[in-house]
Amino acid sequence: MELSVLIEPIAGNGFRAWTGEPFPVAAEGATREEALDKLRTALEARTQSVEVVRLRIGHAIPRSPVWPDDKVTHDWLAGIAAARQAADHTPDPWDDPAGAERP
Is 26 left (phi over 0), alpha (psi -120 to 50) or beta? Predict the structure, then answer.
């Protein structure tokens, strides 16, 4: 598991490292590395008996777009399909049929 960690210098020439939810843990140390090591130890202890899972709720998201079923939408989608077909049959302006290099 990877968590984002904030590190900041604190008064007295030390450092504070901390995380937010779902595991709000903080640790301080004389050096940046010491603060991170202490934070890692605290997080490992905190997450020892915790299981992280993803839970899906609500309605599933449709795999294909849901469009209104009306004449305007059908005409619009037909226009998109025609533009795509025309673009597929139009030479690319960057392709030089003579094979000459561009400056």
Answer: beta
